[in-house]
Amino acid sequence: MINVKKSAAYLFFIFLATVSFCQPVKSQTLNLQENKQHPFADEKNTGFFNLTTFSPLSFSGQYLNGIQTICGDKLNPHLLLGGGMGLERLNSLTTYDNIPANLTLLPVFADIRYVILKKKISPVIALDGGYKFLLNNYSSSFIYESDVIFPGVAWDDYYDNDTYKQGGFFLTAEAGIKMNIYKRLIIYGSVDYSLWSVSGDHHHWIYDYKVNSDNQTILKETEITSRTLAYTHIFLIRLGFGF
Questions:
Q1: Contact 69, 83 (CB under 8 A)
Q2: How far apart are CA 99 and CA 216, in angstroms?
Q3: Backbone torsion region of residue 217, taken as left when φ is above 0, otherwise alpha when ψ lies between -120 and 50, otherwise beta
Q4: What angle do CA 231, 237, 242 make, to 5 degrees?
Q5: What does the alpha-carbon distance between residue 85 and residue 128 come to, in Å, rounded to a whole number?
Q6: CB within 8 A of 217, min separation 6: which ones?
Q7: How far apart are CA 197 and CA 229, in angstroms?
Q8: Residues 5-27: pLDDT tens digits?
Q9: pLDDT for 158-170, tens place per residue?
Q10: Which of 228, 227, 226 is nearest to 197 (CA)?
Q11: Of 92, 176, 160, which Cα lies nearest the Cα of 128?
Q12: Which of 23-37, 110-124, 171-185 has the lowest average pLDDT?
């Protein structure tokens, strides 16, 4: 006759052994599933980050006009705070008063950016604000105008140009795409809109010509110098990498 108590004890022992054996296998299976679902699990959700980009072209026809790098702290998978600096060279850039200028600038700025999705490919929006130091003192080309008061008797010639000596504050809005290619390494592309100012002196020359009764031309020259704050803006494309 079968001993019911012994049989029940054997069944209970087998049950415990089975549960103990299957438990680590189940845990290991879940870990494998997590790794399969999150191929970029090695990417840190917080900590140091760097983004280095260059501008191959702008919408106004500038080519290879700058490079910048940003370092900061990744507060969570979406929000990043940092600071950066760069170098820009812009040729024949039309300023607020429509006088073209060649500018070499050193931007120093704070950066805040938001990664919208926690995926391999995600849109990114960013905002930069700071100061662009002017590295060169630039005198723009002259603009000439003439005003005839009385033909052959009296007329005026006008010349204008700007001498830029200082940079100014700037603000940049950015919309981009980041793509993870290996662990924390990403490639990045964006379109930026930047608005800033440069300041200096505006020069205005007036050449007043009059012909007297002896048919001699008398010239009176007047120069007016005033401070100028010239605003300028630009759309540009950025490409780079980060980690």
A1: no
A2: 35
A3: beta
A4: 115
A5: 11
A6: 209, 210, 211
A7: 7
A8: 454 454 444 444 444 444 444 44
A9: 998 889 999 999 9
A10: 228
A11: 176
A12: 23-37
| Residue 35, H or E segment | helix 4-37
**Predicted structure pTM score:** 0.73
Residue type, 76: N
Q: Which two tokens stand for residue 176?
A: 């981009």
- Name the CA radius of gyration of the chain, rounded: 34
| Cβ neighbourhood burial of 170 (10 Å; 0-12, 13-18, 19+) | buried
DSSP output for 85-128: EEEEEEEEEE-TTS-EEEEEEEEEEEEEEEE--SSSEEEEEEEE
* C-beta separation of 66 from 54 below 8 A: yes
Contact predicate 241/187, CB 8 Å? yes
* Count of CB atoms situated within 10 Å of the CB of 135: 14
Q: How far is residue 179 from each of residues 67, 188, 239, measured CA to CA in Å?
A: 20, 7, 12
- Give the pairing of strands 185-211 and 217-242: antiparallel
Let me know how long the chain is: 243
Structural class in CATH, domain 38-242: mainly beta
- Give 50's contacts (C-beta < 8 A, 6+ positions apart): 69, 70, 71, 242, 243
Domain boundaries defined on the chain? 1-37, 38-242
* Residue 186 vs residues 15, 46, 68, 144, 145: alpha-carbon distances, Å: 49, 15, 16, 51, 53
CA dihedral of residues 145, 148, 154, 155 (deg, nearest 10):
0
